[in-house]
Amino acid sequence: MSMITTLDEFIIRRQKDFPYASGELTGLLRDIGVAAKIVNREVNKAGLVNILGVADHQNTSGDTVQKLDMYANEKLIDCLKNSGECCGIASEENESFMPLEAISEKPSKYVVVFDPLDGSSNIDVNVSVGTIFGIYRRLSSTDEECQVTDFLQKGTELVAAGYVLYGTSTMLVYTTGRGVNCFTLDPSIGEFCLSHKDIKIPNHGQHYSVNQGYYLKFDVEMRRYIDHCSDMGLGLRYIGSMVSDIHRILFQGGIFLYPNTRANPKGKLRLLYECNPLSFVVEQAGGKAINTQLDRILDVEIHELHQKATIAIGSPDMVDEMKAFVEKYSAPMAP
Ligand code: AHM
Ligand code: MG
After folding, report:
1. Which residues are part of the catalytic machinery?
2. Looking at residues 67-84, what average pLDDT do you find?
3. For residue range 324-334, what is the model confidence (pLDDT) as tens digits?
4. Probe ligand 1: pick from 125, 208, 211, 247, max atoms within 8 Å of CB?
5. Is the pLDDT of residue 335 over 60?
6. Is 23 in the same domain as 145?
7. Are residues 268 and 228 in the same domain?
8. Domain check: are 180 and 239 in the same one?
9. Per-residue pLDDT band at 66 (split at 50, 70, 90)
10. Structural domain that includes position 186
11. What contacts 13, CB < 8 A, 6 or more positions away?
């Protein structure tokens, strides 16, 4: 019989690889795993109980917030508050960041950013949604409350990042900068078990992923690249739930695009809560992530918590090809 490695065992084993690690990051990752299990329980029974439906307010980005988003938000906040391992959190569902009080003498040195339930427009129709998270080392002094500058760090400064996909199985995928590993929740024992070790993204895939309904609203160079994908016979796959689309690309290869449109000239997705954590995961698996200005996502300067970004992310050869198209078709015409 093959031995099962649980998420907790794996995280603790990995901590031993860092001789000076104090265990805080280990604790944080475990707490996120616990929150994921609580959210998973609720997501799974969403069709059964009267938790579905649209709540009566919008989040700071103007999207309609659904009840399960708020539930996931609350549970993540509760788990991180009680853990004592982080000094502040920033959530896509909250306008501002939230400093957390230390629960022991030991000051905590991390802040956590998250999108509690990404792709929430899919909840009512039982399509996969996900939680995205990122962990940064605080920059402010441990003598004071955390500051907004602790969160406004480039993606290159991420210490750890990952996502939970509430799909046909529930999976937690994360990286601490030493490869990407995937854990599948075994509901019979209530544990995330190591299921896919050191994931490597294929150099090329058979699908491209974009909301083709906005085609006419994209810049001409992006339309040319999308035409090229279609000419090459690639299939179109778009779930409307970024975590699900990225998860497929991680295993099968492909490219995910969310370019600027006329309605969203800076893109729709958030740099801090969505693009940076997922770019860190994809890069750690050997993929690439850039914006439509062709800058590496992880290098983009961040000035506000809810800053939006455009993104092209996935298999390295496909991102390079998209880059070449944009360079070619956005070059000024010869006189
Ligand atoms: P959300 O955080 O409000 O759920 O929005 C993010 C989601 C992504 O998961 C998905 O890729 C995208 O929005 C879909 O947007 P659109 O419907 O414009 O294609
Ligand atoms: Mg989101």
Report:
1. 63, 69, 92-93, 115, 117-118, 274
2. 90
3. 999 998 866 55
4. 211
5. no
6. yes
7. yes
8. no
9. low
10. 7-196
11. 5
Q: In Å, what is the CA distance from 103 to each residue of 24, 100, 226? A: 13, 9, 51
Q: Give how many domains the chain has, as a whole number.
A: 2
Predicted pLDDT of residue 104:
76
Which residue's CA is minimally distant from atom 7 of ligand 1? 119
Is 2 a member of any domain? Answer: no
Q: Is the pLDDT of residue 16 over 90?
A: no
For tokens 């590496």, name the residue: 296
3-state DSSP assignment of residue 56: strand
Cα–Cα distance list, 142 to 30, 79, 90, 102, 139 (Å): 23, 21, 18, 10, 9
Length of the chain: 335
Nearest-angstrom CA–CA distance, 327 and 325: 5
Same domain (yes/no): 215, 132: no
CATH of the domain at 237: 3.40.190.80
Question: Are 196 and 51 contacting, i.e. CB atoms less than 8 angstroms apart?
Answer: no
Q: Which two tokens stand for residue 214?
A: 């906005």
Mean pLDDT on 54-61: 60
Q: What is the pLDDT of residue 172?
A: 96
pTM over 0.90: yes
CATH code of the domain in which 93 resides: 3.30.540.10
* Ligand 1 atom 14, closest CA: 240
Decide: 158 and 277 in contact? Cβ < 8 Å.
Answer: yes
Q: Do residue 41 and residue 174 come from a single domain?
A: yes
Gap from CA of 121 to ligand 1 centroid (Å) = 8
